[in-house]
Each structure stands twice: as structure tokens, then as C-alpha cells.
Amino acid sequence: IDAGHGGADGGASAADGTVESSLNLAVARRLEALAGLFGVETLMTRSSEDISYPADAGSLREMKRADQAARLELINSRPGAVLISIHQNYYPDPRPSGPQVFYSAVSGSRALGEAAQALLVEKLCPESRRLASPVDEDIYLMREANCPAILVECGFISNAAELEQLKSGEYQNKLAAVLLTAYLQYAGTADGMML
Question: Residue 115 CB: number of other CB atoms within 10 A?
């Protein structure tokens, strides 16, 4: 389970000062805990807001590059892994809302991504018309991971009403439950460890 951003890289920031990385970590921790109740082996790419960087990583860009390389090494060192990367969306216009799942080019990613998107829409956002889509090639972790991988934009922190939901522990539990359900559906057809 990858809680996107963290450390020196907070990701997007909402108008009220909420930082994306903290929401990502909250949802990831809930997903990890729920998966444990179901006997699903998990591994977190980070478990706190603190990230240790190499001494020679002086700029934010160098820190982000070192962090992404460390995450990728962890992911690719685990045979049979399945990557779920948790993020929050941001758009200058405050109207867009709803979750969206992106999937990598690795076999199995599309099936997992489509299952996750369908469940997110059905259970949490039935008015959404968003579809699971291939991830942009610029997303390093998703491009380089050698396992099935999805990136989940849980919602828009630029939408005030959705931000309040995303900050709610109850809603974070629902997100975690939906993502675990999608993984369990996918795992019924493929063996793997959630990372």
C-alpha cells in the first residue's frame, strides 16, 4: 500500500490547509488495518509523514527522486505484489468531484482498476461518470513497478464538500473497505500480496 507523497513532498494542498499526504496516509493506514483483519498480507511504502532522505539529496526534487526510487525498490523486491497507491485529486475549479482509478500497463492492472472504480462509484459516488483509465506515463512509480498497480485518486480536495468527506474517519473507512473489496475480487483470480 503506497500512501502517496509524504515527508518534504506534501502533494496538493486544500484551501483550508489540509495537505494531501496526510489524507493519503490516513486512508492507507485504514486499508492496512482492514486488510489485516481479512488475513491479507500488506506492506506500506511509508507509515508516517516522516521520510529519511540520503544526505546528498539537497533539493526537493532530489528528495522526491530518492523517495520514489526507495519505494520502487521495495515494490519490485516483493514477488507477487499488487500495488495500490493512494492519492487525492486537485483542480483549480472547485466543482469537480468523485474518485478515479488509474491503472498501469502491467497485466492484471486494468482488471483491478476497473473493479475498484466500479465499486467506488457504486458504493460511494453513484452520480459519478468517471471511468478507470490508463495512468499517465509520467507517473514514475506506476510506470516502473513490475507488478499489477493502480493509483486511486480518492476525491478532489479542491471541492469543499468532498474535502470534508475525505477528512472524515468514517468516509476513510468506506474508501478502505471498497479498495479491499476490489483487491479481494481481483485476488480471487490472481495470487498476490498487497503493497
Answer: 22
Q: What is the pLDDT of residue 85?
A: 98
Cβ atoms of 137 and 191 closer than 8 Å: no
Q: Kindly provide the residue ranges of all beta strands, DSSP E only, lying in the chain, ordered along the sequence.
A: 2-3, 81-89, 100-103, 133-134, 149-156, 193-194
Query: Please, are residues 40 and 184 in contact by the beta-carbon 8 Å criterion?
Result: yes
Tell me the three state secondary structure of residue 92.
coil
pLDDT at position 153? 98
Helix (H/G/I), strand (E/B), else coil: 113: helix
Q: Are 134 and 96 spatial neighbours (Cβ–Cβ below 8 Å)? A: no
Q: Any residues with CB less than 8 A from the CB of 127 and at least 6 apart, and which?
A: 98
DSSP H or E segment with residue 161: helix 160-167
Query: pLDDT of 48-66, one tens digit each?
Result: 999 999 999 999 999 999 9
Coil, helix or strand at residue 55? coil
pTM of the model: 0.95
